[in-house]
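Data availability excerpt. The first of two example chains:
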Amino acid sequence: MPIRSSVPFLGQPLSLAIGTLLLSHIAQAEQVEQAETMVVTASRSEQASTEVPLSIGVINAEQLALDQGAHIEDSINAVAGATLNQLSGSSSHNTGIRLPLNYDGYYLFLQDGIPLQSAAFFNHNGLRWASYNTSADQIEILKGAGTTLYGAGAVAATINVRSADPAFEPESRVKLLAGENDYSQLQFSHTDAIADDQAILIAASALQDGGWRDHTRRERQELLLKHLWQGEESEINTVLQLSQQEDESASGLTQAQYDTDITQTGLSDQVLATDPQRSSDFIRLSMEWLYSASDQLEISIIPYLRHSTNNYVATWRSYTPVGETAIDSIGLLNKASYQHDDGSETFFGLDLEQSQSDELSYQPFTVTTRGWGANTYVAGHKYRDQEVQYRNLSPYVQHNRFLSDNLQLQAGLRYDYNRYELENNLAEADNDSYGNRRLADRSDSFSSLNPKLAASYRLSDSSNLYGRIAQATRLPSAATLYNLSSGDSKSLAGGVDEERSTTWELGYKMTSEQLDLTLAAYRMEIRDAIVRAEDSKGDSFSTNAGETRHQGVELELLYRFAPHWSLQAALSESRHKFIDYINDGTDFSGKGMMRAPHTKGSLALNWVPGALHTQLQLEHFGTYWMDDANTQKAPSFTLLNLKARYNIEPDWQLFARIDNLLDRRYSHQTEIRYGKVRYYPGQGLNVKAGLEYRW
């Protein structure tokens, strides 16, 4: 008789796999010792993954060395329930982790534990500023609401890209990767001791990609400097990160364009003649001071400075305005951890940040659009010219206590206060003649109190059961508050508040000589979602009137079934739907959300006979609704990839990967916009190879 799930959204194939694996291997967890995967994202201190009462997907250094990715999606998409979508072949991306693919601020992106951007100015492309192409040593994805360490934005996931640490033993590396469409990537790193108590790491990279679609060339350069000083009671880690990138722009394709030539740009001749591009500069300087005040008290203080620019042509709008934004931040992360005599632990802290955004948006040339919203847009017109100041203050506390030898309870509380101040350099106007509203100078503030509660029960030295419930909030971004259309007159008059969410999660983790397994079932409800509504005059405005529900099951495993052979699986099955949502007068309550596949996953077969490591990987992205009205579904797609790494002892390594081995034609994102289908095609068969030398 087939095993049937008692959970309505869990399908039979996944149920059967989970049941079989648990029954056949759970006994092995107590019989052998296996090296644990260590993570830091949950508490900003190193912990064994099985001991953390939440789901954390990990891409370790070995897998990253095998991936040799051109884009961070080449690694993250192998985590259960996670999708990172490279947009139009550029450095940009959107994200879908325990949510549909979306562009909103439900995610917190970190580099070495420090935010890559402010929640108030969330950019869905935020991970392009991470050091994935330069010195990534491990990527950790904390799924669901963040811990007490993380505030606004840590709703659906927290992604932490960890770079390599300085070492006291000298080592240098140089790596060259090359591929089709003029793709090349050069990486260099050197680490060494500069004194008995100091070490440095210097890493740099340069990437060029001609793009497999027309007008999708991209370039990226980065320099990463790290310094470590170790004293008897203190440690100081200093990091300087600088990057510069430039992408040519393309767009989605119509049905006719997709059917005839998927390599075309999707842009009109007039727009293409302006050579639309996106460029960005990024600078971050941070210093972490770790101080052991006593055997019981440890203090961590991290001041940081951050600067980013984002200059682009908005090719997704018919009149293609230009946007230029610069954001400067100064922040301070403070944490103290106290170990009590009874073995319990209390940590508490205070996070502070002040950021300023300078935004300019204007019309680069005169254009007359057709169809929906047709208008003539005159060259030189300014849509936005404004400054926004953002301040954040967030104290938090958490207590971890063993109620018995095997049962641990974690209880935490975080308070977030956020304040915006708008200074508009343009005259106040209800309508600027192009459907945009200009606001007078104003200020807005938001506050929230979010509890976190988790429990874990140790079944053995290498297996745990856990459960958690955690609340989180998403701030309305500065753009949501202040970049309004003329129909948005009620958005601020009625008030737009934070979105609030609750995550419930149950999970099981184990590790043995043959099997590492993580199984998680979750449910996340988002209340007061910021949606578009319509008043009696037909004008639309933003308001907190939505409620959505997201629930699913995730399975991750590594099964070493024979000498030199192993199987990796990262599978998820989920449902994402509106509980209460009215958009421009249409009630979508009860509908499934767009861009939300029910199933997605990755299967990888590894063969490691000594110096050679090969991986045959199957990626699956299930069918999903193309619009919120649920009128049409996009087809699923499954891709086959082959990766290999060969160690030529003692100093040389060869790499190669073939993506889309069967040359499948597919669209990695398909949606209905203004009544028409838009396709974002995926790349066909492509080959990359590389060589690394160490000394």
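And the second chain:
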Amino acid sequence: MDTMKVKENVDLQRARQNTAVDSGLFAEWWAGGRDALQKRRDLEKLFFDDPAFNDEKHISYMSHKELYEHSVAKATKFLTKLRAWHKEQERVERAAGKPAKGAIQSMYDFRMILSGSLGTSLFQQSFPLRLHFSMFLPTLLGQGTEEQQRTWLNKAWNLDGMIGTYAQTELGHGTFLRGLETRADYDIEREEFILNTPTLTAYKWWPGGLGHTANVVVIMAQLYIKGKHCGLHPFLVRIRSEDTHEPVPGVDVGEIGTKIGINGVNNGYLGFTNVRISRTQMLMKNAQVLPDGTFVKGPEPLLLYGTMVFTRVMIVRDVMFGLLQAATIATRYSFVRRQSPIAPDQPEPQIIDHLTQQQKVFPQIAKGVFFRIAADYVWKLYQEVAKELDAGNRSNLAELHALSCCLKAVCSHESTTGIEILRRACGGQGYLTSANFSQIYGVATAACTYEGENTVLLLQTARFLVKNCFATNNNNTFPKTLTYLGDTKPLNWSNDLVTLVRALEIAASQKVQNAAKYQNLKRVKNQIKQEVAANLAGIKLTEAATLHGRAFLARVSYEEIHNLKNRIEPTLYTVLIQLLEIFLLDMFLSSLGDVLRSNTITSEQLSQVELRFEQVLGEFRDNAIAVVDGFDFHDRVLGSTLGCYDGRVYERLMEEAKKSPLNQETVNSSFHKYLKPFMQNKL
């Protein structure tokens, strides 16, 4: 069949004609304006129209080694072309008199290209130099002195003889930084640090690009001067020759093997045996070692957490992006697929007409939208705190750290769960690699454990919550994101969205206070230290942090959308309100146990909530296609037989099946070697 002659699926065509909101209008809002949307489309076209970026065969048919080599080859072509585009953009902006972007904003924008539509479409198993841009460069900027930045930052930004990664996690230790074992002993006579990996568990393990791509690395190591421990600090270390790429003497480096996903990233291991580096290769913005061995502790850094907060904001954006890819695929497929008559005398309906299908798909669309809004909020907060720290004000640092930990944990978990719900919503076809759920899930689920395992991050958030939950008792004010803890008014039930927000906040407040009391009870009753009591209260603490995250998401989403009321087209505002209502109702109902423990809600009121959830799903049905179209994912970005814009699902499934290497011959050699002798009993 010549599928190129097949027109757009009629059900999708009809759905696009019946929407109340224009998908182009939504796309402009989602992209941040018409100019931003066109700029992104032009950039994508620059690459999608270039045959050099087409894959000769699907990556699922490549070996592990082939995939890595293919990814690196494409990455070098990609960065060369992207760099030329970026320089031209800078020239145009300078000519237009626009102010130059700061280094942090430039890194953020570049990272968004790599993990956004363009990067995802070209590197479905993730970008092999991802850590260079998301962690290595921000660490040089955040931890290096001005002199060190002048020496290395420009070279690293331009990849001038330097491809870097960030090595913190070890084989035996991850989130618990004080447990890291890699040593840096200062040799006063030679003014050098001597790096060693004292045990097997001290091997650096997991950094992206470390295996065979990076030639320099920022490592976190325990500093010792004259045998005295001086804490954990970052060091810039060359691990491979710039000319030959061979490991330098004393360095043991390689990759850790295949993973569930992101196999284009080349995660690695790294060990040191008496590797010497200059004293000036310790990143000394926040602490210094003078030539005579004097240790000088500087002011609190933008983050001991620094690189991590930046990265966690990126992660929320990444998992949101994956969730919306999956939601777009499942939504389009749900309008194309027909199955299971609702009434016996009627033909098979589109599966999107089943209320159960709407309940699976639509909340995931809403989550993706509002995870993005939350990520934007935290990014702005990050920039504000960075300025405050430069001025010596550290008052909001702990709040930023706790919020970034919480959102990374909550959003990565919810997104991973949502992607799996969407895969199953596509039935058996969703299980095919060509549907692309496996690639999307593999990238998203990794975020649940990297840059801080989610449970550990929730416990870090919980410590902040416990510390602040009784602030008014100590004549202190609550941090901005915790002001709801000070609102002790009971819920005044009304059938509106703000009631749902308040119900979640009251539930979170009660959960936090109960967890704090429980922890203190364990401490007093057992006469144990606070940290030991926290372990015994760990389940309640993580639940409190999760509910705090949900309450924050509810509040910031509600406020951000209502602030748009008089600034956007009424039809767009209407569909955003529908999404907001789906989001809040879904969170309310999925948190129902905690909500009912903390609020007085009658059975009739709860029934009204459940009924309204069903109603708003039906109301959003006709706008669903316009919204997912408005995310403006090119078919190359989705990479899915089920989710293409034209809805030609069955033709594409057959096309992909025929591309299988096993279908390139009518009889496989295994028949003559094994099956035929077996059937003839001649083995």
